[in-house]
Automatic annotation (TrEMBL):
GO MF term (any one): methyltransferase activity
Name of the protein in question: RsmD family RNA methyltransferase
Source species of the chain: Maribacter chungangensis
Record's keyword terms, sorted: Methyltransferase, Transferase
BP terms from Gene Ontology: methylation
UniProt entry tagged with the keyword Protease: no
Stretches assigned to the PG-1098 ferredoxin-like domain: 279-321
Entry keyword annotation includes Transferase: yes
Residue ranges constituting the THUMP-like domain according to the UniProt record: 322-391
Membrane-crossing residue ranges in chain numbering: none
Length: 396
């Protein structure tokens, strides 16, 4: 960590050049004796990338940014804030703390937080940023998280861990046993040190596999940000033996939408079906990841279009966890019938359909965009159909 980057004149230069071509900066001589052109470019590029992802870091003076890989791997501020809503008590150890976004969020809920990190550079950066953000209840620990747990005599209320999903050669891995550390090997140690564990995994981990490999799972939170699943959170509680609740969480700029259920309820649910009615509903990404396809029918009074389409319809407006549309027309998947809709461009989605969006656009010569939405899918009679609709704004 180069402390000279935090000098007022260097910080002013960074802020004044956020829109400057990075390559031009790299090949120009640095105006500062103790900060290279490469370092300036790295700070500017990182700050530019986190404008929307980490608004507090972007607007706080004197923030020191980590490298591009660390910034890309860190939680967004929105997902970190949601994590913090799940914990309470006095002490929490963030065992894979990195740049410190989750640590910062936890510091708003806990009396004492330990930022445990193996890379000294990241520990120093996190300390500097805590100072800049006037956070005083975080203790930096330069150590391996497992070593810290084995050695500490501190009584913890929570342990949080985000196992690395990359190998030494930066290849991505997806199974818990391939992550570092392998949390399935250390669950007993975690529960010996505290009663509550929060584990973050990637969005591609199968829920059934995760539940089978982890002990005492009380809750599973599937977190989507602006309709893209970012992470899955596993809440473990010492001694818990019941069925975990699943919460599909959709975060957006203005709302938090939560659909909670038990997987046994989904297994027992009996779906209802119908042809397209007045309204069309598309589940958000978190609900789709959760697999709660049948339960949506009884919970929200909607009908599925087809057993495998995961699109829903109703004759009346519903408070549904996802996108809402009003159906304008339904036609067969026939070029002449679709041409009668008289559309030059449209937003196209496919669900349980043999042709890809690219193939459909080529066949129909439809440009992307506009206010019209076309869903290409199958109906309850297994026929290929096209649903033309307009999107409705949700009331909450």
């Amino acid at each position: 960590m180069n402390d000279a980057i935090l000098h007022a004149d260097v910080q002013a230069f960074i802020n004044e050049n956020l829109d400057t071509d990075i390559l031009k900066l790299v090949f120009k001589k640095s105006p500062f004796a103790h900060v290279s052109a490469k370092e300036l470019a790295e700070q500017i590029e990182a700050k530019r990338k986190i404008n929307k992802k980490l608004p507090t870091w972007f607007t706080t003076p004197g923030i020191y940014f980590a490298n591009k890989l660390n910034i890309s791997q860190t939680s967004s501020e929105a997902t970190a804030t949601y994590k913090a809503s799940l914990v309470d008590g006095n002490t929490l150890a963030d065992l894979t703390a990195g740049f410190g976004v989750d640590t910062y969020a936890f510091s708003k809920k806990m009396k004492q937080v330990y930022h445990v990190e193996t890379e000294l550079e990241l520990s120093n950066i996190a300390q500097s940023n805590c100072d800049a953000m006037k956070v005083s209840n975080v203790t930096m620990v330069h150590a391996n998280g497992i070593d810290f747990l084995e050695q500490t005599k501190e009584t913890l209320d929570w342990i949080y861990i985000d196992p690395s999903r990359r190998t030494d050669t930066q290849e991505k891995v997806y199974f818990l046993s391939d992550c570092e550390p392998d949390v399935t090997l250390y669950t007993d140690l975690f529960l010996f040190k505290c009663n509550n564990i929060l584990i973050k995994t990637g969005p591609l981990l199968d829920l059934s596999i995760g539940q089978a490999q982890l002990k005492h799972v009380k809750e599973i939170h599937i977190i989507a940000l602006n309709n893209e699943v970012k992470e899955v959170l596993w809440v473990l509680e010492k001694g818990f033996k019941g069925e975990p609740s699943v919460k599909a969480v959709q975060l957006s700029n203005s709302t938090t939408e939560v659909f909670a259920f038990l997987r046994s309820g989904e297994q027992a649910a009996v779906p209802t079906f119908s042809l397209p009615q007045k309204y069309l509903y598309e589940p958000n990404a978190a609900v789709l990841k959760s697999g709660a396809f049948k339960l949506l029918c009884s919970r929200f009074g909607v009908n599925k279009l087809h057993p495998h389409s995961h699109l829903y319809t109703a004759s009346q407006a519903k408070d549904f966890p996802g996108r809402h549309f009003e159906i304008k027309a339904v036609v067969n998947y026939n070029k002449k019938e679709i041409q009668k809709l008289d559309l030059g461009k449209a937003n196209i989605s496919t669900r349980n359909f043999p042709d890809s969006v690219a193939t459909i656009r080529k066949k129909l010569k439809l440009k992307d965009g506009g206010s019209e939405y076309l869903f290409f899918t199958k109906n309850v009679d297994d026929k290929l159909i096209v649903i033309s609709c307009s999107r409705l704004l949700q009331t909450k």
